[in-house]
Amino acid sequence: MKQIIYILTFLILTGCGQNNSERNSNIVLDSIADQVSDTSILDNNQLAEQTTIDENQSEEYRKQSLSGFEKATLYKLTDTITADFNGDGLLDKAIYKKENETSGIIIIHGKTNDQVKIGFGKQFAHMTDFNWVDYWELFEGTETSETTFKDDGDILGSKKVKLQNVSIFIGRHEEGGGLITFKNGNYEWIHQAD
């Protein structure tokens, strides 16, 4: 770490009066120095390799998240999902949002601009918020499997469910989740386990 400080001090002291191209090379060196771990400096090849590893891990995560969903697209929680959720022929928007201590999904219908809030402290199926969610997907399949439970909460099994419209899958990695789907005039929850 001391070597890095010496190098940076040297660059600063010798940098006075340099032209713009020399300053730009110092900016690159400073940028590399900013990426220093406690033990070593990563060279450009190592940085490129690390980026590739991160992208591969992200792709692997995406494949795991989409397992069982052949017609699904994974989104970041900060992304807006656009699709016809209520089947009226116009595009709607879904937004995952945190408000104060709670969270939920806001669906804005394209035809009427009506906003449907799901969660945010109000009961939806067995939940009141979605703070546990760490990914969401647009599911375009017409059939899915719903996990069923006994009265004591143990898993009973699963049953096939026909879907009328595209749906939103929300979940937590390695824990499961479920679909929010518009069916018979209302948004419903279809529970799914990993």
Features:
36% strand, single chain, four-stranded antiparallel sheet, 194 residues, 2 domains, 11 strands, five-stranded antiparallel sheet, alpha+beta, FG-GAP repeat-containing protein
Structure commentary:
The chain is an alpha+beta fold. The chain has 2 domains: 2-64, no CATH class; 70-192, no CATH class. Helices cover 26% and strands 36% of the residues. It has 3 helices and 11 strands, in the order αααβββββββββββ. The strands form 3 sheets. Strands 1-6-9-10-11 form a 5-stranded antiparallel sheet, with no helix packed on it. A hairpin with a 6-residue loop joins strand 4 (102-108) and strand 5. It is globular and about 40 Å long. Residues 16-59 and 61-68 have low confidence and may be disordered.
SS class: alpha+beta
Query: What is the element string, with H for helices and E for strands?
Result: HHHEEEEEEEEEEE
Shape: globular
Number of domains: 2
Q: How would a textbook summarize the main sheet?
A: 5 strands, antiparallel
The level of helicity is 25-40%
Count of alpha/pi helices: 3
Number of strands: 11
**Order of adjacent strands in the largest pleated sheet:** 1-6-9-10-11
Strand content: 35-45%
Radius of gyration equals 24 Å
Runs with pLDDT <50, length 5+?
Answer: 16-59, 61-68
N- to C-terminal distance: 45 Å
Q: On the 0-100 scale, what is the average pLDDT?
A: 74
